[in-house]
Amino acid sequence: MRLISIRLAILILITGNASSAIAASHPLHDIRDAAVQYVRSHFSSSAEDIMIVAQKLDARLLLPQCKSPLEAYLPHGSRVNGNTTVGVRCHGNKPWSVFVPVNVQIYRDIVVASRSLAKNKILKAEDFHTERFDINRFSGAYLTELDKIIGKQLIRPVQLGTPVLSNMLKKPILIRRGELVILLAKTHTYEVRMQGKAMMDGASGDRIRVRNSSSKRIIEGKLAEDGTVLVY
């Protein structure tokens, strides 16, 4: 408050009266617009996908009219999404700098539950759909592709209308420890199939250890979607 009063007093001394001092100050809406345009320049999405709102600056803030184009920048440690801060500065004869609080919301169609879903449920197409959400709320864990979720297993319950996030999902266990499996070893010229016993649980794509039923050797292979263990 005292700093603002001093600035106003200096402008009054220069211009001769308070009204001309206020007229000589830089428009605050121009500063806010510079901050918004700077943030918008970081995104390629269409305007309806992004909402950028700069908070109003204190009307008592009196900054000298800048004769050169304003420069906006991102202060160290800031980011261009969520609640952030954009610096705006003037390089004119009377340089100044001010920080503008900005809120950035980025909307995308993400996967949400179509019904309440229980823990350990294997997901089907009818269990989810897409809705538009501000993705800043989900720290990058949101999902957009429906086909990549089918067949995944929930690790905790999900309520109706709640976004289904990547950290809520896992591959379902395909083979349990102790179950009999087929070991498949193949090259360009031959293919050999052997029976074995799984030494550990495994999901599709996992590497698991299997004991060969004939040689009793423990072999490691990759578990295929059909339950076969591929040995290379």
Describe the protein.
- By secondary structure, the protein is an alpha+beta fold.
- The protein has three helices and 14 strands.
- It folds into two domains: 25-169, Alpha-Beta Complex (Type Iii Antifreeze Protein Isoform Hplc 12); 173-231, SH3 type barrels (Roll).
- Strands 1, 2, 3, 4 and 5 form a five-stranded antiparallel β-sheet that branches. The chain has a five-stranded mixed β-barrel with strand order 9-10-12-13-14.
- The longest helix has 14 residues, at 2-15.
- The chain is elongated.
Task: Give a quick precis of the structure.
By secondary structure, this protein is an alpha+beta fold. The chain has helices at residues 2-15, 18-23, 28-40, and strands at 50-54, 71-73, 82-90, 96-113, 128-134, 153-154, 169-170, 173-175, 180-186, 191-198, 202-203, 207-212, 218-223, 229-231. The N and C termini lie far apart (74 Å).
List the helices and strands and how they pair.
Blueprint: H1 2-15, H2 18-23, H3 28-40, E1 50-54, E2 71-73, E3 82-90, E4 96-113, E5 128-134, E6 153-154, E7 169-170, E8 173-175, E9 180-186, E10 191-198, E11 202-203, E12 207-212, E13 218-223, E14 229-231
Parallel strand pairs: 9-14
Antiparallel strand pairs: 1-4, 2-3, 3-4, 4-5, 6-7, 8-11, 9-10, 10-12, 12-13, 13-14
The CATH superfamily of the largest domain bears the name: Antifreeze-like/N-acetylneuraminic acid synthase C-terminal domain
Elements, N to C (H/E): HHHEEEEEEEEEEEEEE
Structural category is alpha+beta
**Share in β-strands:** 25-35%
Shape: elongated
Kindly provide the name of the CATH class of the largest domain.
Alpha Beta
Helical content stands at: 10-25%
Mean pLDDT over all positions: 87
